[in-house]
Amino acid sequence: MENTFDRAKIIVRGGEGGHGAVSFRHEKFVPLGGPDGGEGGQGGNVILRANGNTSDLGKYRFRKVFQAENGEPGQGGKRKGRRGKDLILEVPLGTRVIDVKNEILMADLVADGQEVIVARGGRGGLGNVSFASSTNQAPRLAQKGETGGELEIILELRLLSDVAIIGCPNAGKSSFLNLISHSRPRIADYPFTTKEPVLGVLSGERNLIFVEIPGLLAGAHEGRGLGNSFLNHAMRSQLLIYLIDGGSESPLGDFITLKGELEFFDSELVSKPSVVAINKIDLSEVRSKMQEIKKTFEEYGIKPYFISAKTGEGVYDLLNKVKDMVKEERPVETNIEIILRPEAKASVQVYREANSFRVVAPDIERIMALVDLEDPEVRRQLYGLLERRGVSQALRRAGARPGDEIKIGDTAWPWW
Ligand SMILES: Nc1nc2c(ncn2[C@@H]2O[C@H](COP(=O)(O)OP(=O)(O)OP(=O)(O)O)[C@@H](O)[C@H]2O)c(=O)[nH]1
Ligand SMILES: [Mg+2]
Q: Which residues contact 349 (CB under 8 A, 6 or more apart)?
């Protein structure tokens, strides 16, 4: 997938937790001093935040990975490492967040300031203070910081709007938007003048947001013209206006083409309430065909409105109808409950591999990562810990004998 202004696939990564420290109060290795190595700082989270001043997802077009700051290592004097800063990624209102792997909608950010954590920072590792016990008063074990959570997500912008203006190129969509709102999209005598969706606000008792969807033609779903992906921005609209060029060879044919393209995109769109407006009735060749056009639509079960986006004729009636049809309240945006992955349990599992035993226990793996197995004292302490945490028992149950190879994380050594 190529990242565009309204869609981006990115990887977010929480910061790593800082390592726990091995430190003693006085001189190193003078047991009397007592351990005072502090905990590592937590890694920063990656947070998406909706911002009303951000208009698109352009800033995610070229960068792929976004990682929050790592936590700092713990220090002597039981000092905890500094927490990593959160990374805040601003997104426009209407951004949907999709978890790629699990194919779930994680969040729909529609309100200014609304936030969602998409990747958590790893926890800091425990310092040697935490490993002191009555039998081990000079612990030289500490824990590595946890790696941060990582997630591949798709950001997808769906503009917030009440009414979507759908039509073929040149039908007069921009002219209509220009007439009813302060929006000033470019209007020109050639197709595809509008290349991005345009918003306009019709002020009144209740402001209505209109969105002009770039022109659609037959085969848009196969990529003809500008394609059909802009229809995504009509998904939140309550009402569609099919704006038809009255001067077209077949206004009804245009309408059927448009509906077909919407159906190809998402059948939910076609089932939205809609009105049909035949445009350009100020032109004599259109005016002379009005009765005929009306009849063809009525035979199809539709009562069209006739308007001129140039002179404003008929627009008042159309807008009254639109206001009636758009429900009093905007539908409450369901705020999707965020599903956070459960934290790994502190359990111990042993698996038999070809000639070795693999221990799976995340918190112990993090201790192993900092252990110097060459040092007999450290080794002695490690065995005490493995005994207390039930790792040795689990190994014995699995049939491990002294001399068998044991693997924990990236470390492998013969059991004794
Ligand atoms: N006479 C007349 N011309 C109109 C009317 N509405 C639009 N036009 C003309 O039709 C042409 C296209 O109008 P636009 O408003 O740009 O149409 P659009 O549907 O936004 O077109 P694209 O953005 O290119 O898809 C322009 O030359 C307009 O001046 C109308 O009611 N009467
Ligand atoms: Mg236009």
A: 359, 360, 361, 394
Distance CA 217, CA 371 (A): 66
Non-local CB neighbours of 159 within 8 Å, separated by 6+ positions: 94, 197, 199, 211, 233, 236
Give me 345's structure tokens: 């349990």
As a whole number of angstroms, the distance between CA 119 and CA 7 comes to 19
- Whose structure tokens read 């420290």? 21
Instruction: Report the distance separating Cα 257 and Cα 15, nearest Å.
Output: 50
Pocket test for ligand 1, best of 170, 178, 210, 283 (most atoms within 8 A of CB): 170
- Asked whether 193 lines ligand 1 (CB < 6 A), one says yes
Per-residue tokens: 309: 């986006």
Tens of pLDDT, residue by residue over 340-386, are: 444 445 578 889 888 899 998 888 888 988 888 888 888 889 888 89
The finding on whether 313 has its CB within 6 A of some atom of ligand 1 is no
pLDDT number for residue 388: 87
The rounded distance, in Å, linking the Cα atoms of 49 and 59 is: 14
* Start-end of H helices in 266-360: 267-270, 284-287, 290-299, 315-325
Ligand 1 atom at shortest distance from the alpha carbon of 175: 15
Residues of the chain with pLDDT under 70: 1, 27-32, 327-346
- CA 290, 296, 297, 298 torsion-angle sign: positive
In this predicted structure, what is the pLDDT of residue 333?
Answer: 53
How, if at all, do strands 65-67 and 87-91 pair?
Answer: unpaired
Global confidence as pTM? 0.77
For the chain, what percent of residues have pLDDT higher than 70?
94
Please identify, in words, the CATH class of the domain defined by 349-414: alpha beta
> So what's the pLDDT on residue 370?
86
Rounded distance between C-alpha atoms, residue 395 and residue 388, angstroms: 13
Structural tokens at position 368: 């192993």
Residue 411, strand partner residues: 408
The residue extents of the domains of the chain are 7-157, 163-325, 349-414
Which token pair is 283? 């032109």
| Ligand 2 center–CA 173 separation, angstroms | 5
CATH of domain 163-325: 3.40.50.300
**Closest atom of ligand 1 relative to the 193 alpha carbon:** 24
Q: Tell which CATH architecture fits domain 7-157.
A: Distorted Sandwich (2.70)
